[in-house]
Amino acid sequence: MIHFLNLKKLNQPFEAAFQKKMKQFLEGGWYILGNEVKQFETDFATYCGTKHCIGVGNGLDALVLIFKAYIHLGKLQKGDEVIVPANTYIASILAILQADLVPVLVEPRLETFNINPEEIEAKISSKTKAILPVHLYGQLCEMKAINEIAKKHNLLVIEDAAQAHGSQFSENEKAGNLSHAATFSFYPGKNLGALGDAGAITTNDDALAAVLFSMRNYGSKVKYENEIIGVNSRLDELQAAFLNIKLKQLDSENEFRRSMAKRYLSKIKNEKILMPNWDLSQNHVFHLFVIRTSNRTDLQNYLKENGIETMIHYPIPPHKQKALANWNQLSFPITEKIHDEVLSIPLNSGLKASEIQHIITTLNNY
Ligand SMILES: Cc1ncc(COP(=O)(O)O)c(C=O)c1O
Fold first, then answer.
1. Which terminus of the chain is more solvent-facing, meaning fewer CB atoms within 10 Å of its CB: N or C?
2. Which residues line ligand 1 (CB under 6 A)?
3. What pLDDT score was predicted for residue 248?
4. pTM to 2 decimals?
C-alpha cells in the first residue's frame, strides 16, 4: 500500500539529529521558553522576511491570539466582521468565533481553491474590519488584489499560512510577510512539521508582537506579573528544537514537492480527472496535491484497490458542519462543488520513484 503520508518515513532523515538534540535537551534541563524557542523565532522571522516571529502552541491558537491582540490594541472590537473563504479548514472560522468576531464567508475560485477577490467587496459592510485569506493547499492567494481592497476599506489583513510555509511570489514577498500578521501551523504533516502540536505568528508590527509575546504566556513578561489577560499557548521548547533542525531543509522539501507536482501535471492525462492549476512559479509549495473528479467515491475506491491511499481535504464544508448548525441552510455552490469533487493524492518526500510512477500509471488507466 502506498500510504498517503508516512510520518515515520518523512522524519527518518532527521532521526540522528533529533536524538543528538534530545540528549542536549535532557542535559540542559530547560523545558519552557528557552534558547530553542528563541532560536526558532529568530530564524523563522528571517526565513519569512518579517521583524517578528512569536512561537505559539498551534495554528488555531495563532489565529485566536492575533484577533485577541488586535482587540486588546483597540484595532478590532467584539462583533466586528471578518471575511474568510467558505472552503477553508474549519480552524480559520473557529478562531474568528473564539475571539467573539463574526465570520463572513466568501466563495473561492474553482480554479485555485483560494478566496475570490472579486467576491469580497460585495460582502463588506460597515462592521467589516478584517480579511483572513487562507493560502489553501500551499498556494498563495491573490494578495495584491486583496491588499488593495483592504487598503480601500481600511481593513486588517491576516494570512492563514498554516499550509504554505515558504510559498513566495519573489524573494521578498513570501507567505508570512504579505499582510499585517500571519499564522503558521507545524502540525506533523505540514511541509514544516513538528513531532507534536506547534504554531507561530509572523508580523512586522512591533506593538502587535509585544502584546502577543505577553498574551501567549499568561499575559506576562516578568514572571508572576500579569499585564493583560493572557493564555498558555507557548511554542514547546522540544518542538522548537525539532523545528530548528527541520527548518534548514524546508526549501529543499518544497523544491522536491514542486518537482513532483510538475511530474504529476505533465504525466497524468485522463479526461475524467481535473488537475490543479499552477503557473509553475514558487507561489505553491504543494502541501497537498488536490485533483477533482465528478465521481470521487469511484475513483477513490479504484485507487485503493490498486494500493494507493488518498484523502479528502475536506469532505464537509464548514457551513454544513453540525458544529455550525446556524449556517446549515446557507448555500455556497462553488464551495460545495469543491467539497464534493476534491481528492488529495500522495505527494511527499517519502515516496519512491517507483511509487510515483505507479500513481501516475494507475490514474492514467482509470
Ligand atoms: C488552513 C488551516 N488553518 C489553521 C489550521 C490550524 O492549525 P493547528 O492544527 O496547528 O491548530 C490548520 C491546520 O491544519 C489549517 O490547515
1. N
2. 58-60, 88-89, 91-92, 134, 160, 162-163, 185, 187, 197, 199
3. 98
4. 0.98
